[in-house]
């Protein structure tokens, strides 16, 4: 079975953290994005299938960088959860 890849923005707290946990349980590889370094980095320590990306997504250039980082890391992207803001 090929695992699917999800990108979750706003992943470092609240609903975003819950979404990351649920997708991990469902077997997804996850790129978890957040702007707060300490909280975002905790995700990769707690969720084996997750990689983290730290940045402020109010910048269009950083949004492009995030998607590129996800594809570079996992080779593809099937699901976007735009939870930032």
Short description, anyone?
By secondary structure, the protein is α/β, with parallel strands linked by helices. The chain has helices at 14-25, 37-46, 60-74, and strands at residues 5-9, 29-34, 50-54, 79-81.
Question: In words, what does this structure look like?
Answer:
- By secondary structure, the chain is of the alpha/beta class.
- The chain contains three helices and four strands, in the order βαβαβαβ.
- Strands 3-2-1-4 form a four-stranded parallel sheet, sandwiched between helices.
- β1, α1 (14-25) and β2 (29-34) form a beta-alpha-beta unit.
- The protein is globular.
- It starts with a strand and ends with a strand.
- The relative contact order is 0.27.
- The model has no long low-confidence stretch (mean pLDDT 94).
Mean pLDDT: 94
- Estimated share of beta-strand residues: 15-25%
- Rg to the nearest angstrom? 11 Å
Shape: globular
Unreliable segments (pLDDT under 50, ≥5 consecutive)?
Answer: none
Helical percent range?
40-55%
From the N-terminal CA to the C-terminal CA, the straight-line distance is: 34 Å
Largest sheet: 4 strands, parallel
Secondary structure layout:
Layout: E1 5-9, H1 14-25, E2 29-34, H2 37-46, E3 50-54, H3 60-74, E4 79-81
Structural key phrases:
four-stranded parallel β-sheet; 3 helices; 85 residues; 22% strand; alpha/beta
């Amino acid at each position: 079975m090929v695992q699917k890849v999800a990108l979750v923005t706003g992943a470092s707290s609240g609903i975003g953290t819950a979404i990351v946990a649920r997708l991990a349980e469902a077997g997804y590889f996850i790129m978890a994005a957040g702007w707060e370094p300490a909280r975002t980095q905790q995700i990769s320590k707690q969720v084996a299938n997750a990689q983290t990306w730290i940045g402020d997504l109010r910048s269009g250039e950083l949004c492009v960088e995030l998607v590129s980082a996800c594809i570079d890391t996992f080779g593809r992207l099937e699901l976007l959860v735009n939870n930032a803001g």
